[in-house]
Amino acid sequence: MWLSWVRRSKTSGRLTQSPSFSAPTVSSPTGKDHPGIGAVLDDDAAVGSGDGAGAGSKIVLHRARSASRLRACKSFAAAAEAAAASVAGERHVVLYFTSLHAVRATFEGCLTVRTILRGLRVSVDERDVSMDAAYLAELCALMRRDRPSLPQLFVGGRLLGDAEEVLLLHESGELRRVLASAVQAAPAPCASCGGSRFVPCGACCGSHRRFSDKTGGFRVCTSCNENGLVRCAACSSGS
User: Fold this and answer.
1) Which end of the chain is more exposed for a tag (fewer CB within 10 A), N or C?
2) 3-class SS string, the chain
């Protein structure tokens, strides 16, 4: 019986192999891992795969998309670098928060962190995102998220976390050690803005509208933010 099985195996001409396992390959991240750059490369590959007059007519469109996406990537990188520079500094403490009462949990978390920092008597660069949308854009660039949660505390350019994480650090005594080298808070609030870090715009009196003699109508004031406010020069010059 065994000899007959050998003959059948030889005549069939098929060889059996034991199953083998291949080691997983690990590739290092490249520029294509970035969503914007990866989309640009995909567009270029799609253009190269086409042929004829149809592909030639699409080259201009694909190149325009690639250029616009590359510009978006560059602008995002520039915004991230500018935001990182705004919170940098060994003794710089920055808090992004909101003073709006729309979401109770968010407001209470912001109030808790502000109370803790005031109790530690450290100088804090408080950035209220409800007062200036530019602060929210900075935070989005720093967190790389479209809608980051509030509050967020940065010390020396390093993210410490939200209200829950700051509260845990405070209860363990670690927060006081982290803020040991921070600048001490002033004994009294700013006389110009009262500690709000914003004053009404002097060019439009806080209306965010200015009369134009050239057009004979009103136009948007470019000297202030969307709320008709400008940053206080007395206490926000280093922000």
Assistant:
1) N
2) CHHHHHHHHHHHCCCCCCCCCCCCCCCCCCHHHCHHHHHHHHHHHHHHHCCHHHHHHHHHHHHHHHHHHHHHHHHHHHHHHHHHHHHCCCCCEEEEECCCCCCHHHHHHHHHHHHHHHHCCECCEEEECCCCHHHHHHHHHHHCCCCCCCCEEEECCEEEECHHHHHHHHHHCHHHHHCCCCCECCCCCCCCCCCCCEEECCCCCCCCEEEECCCCEEEECCCCCCCCEEECCCCCCCC
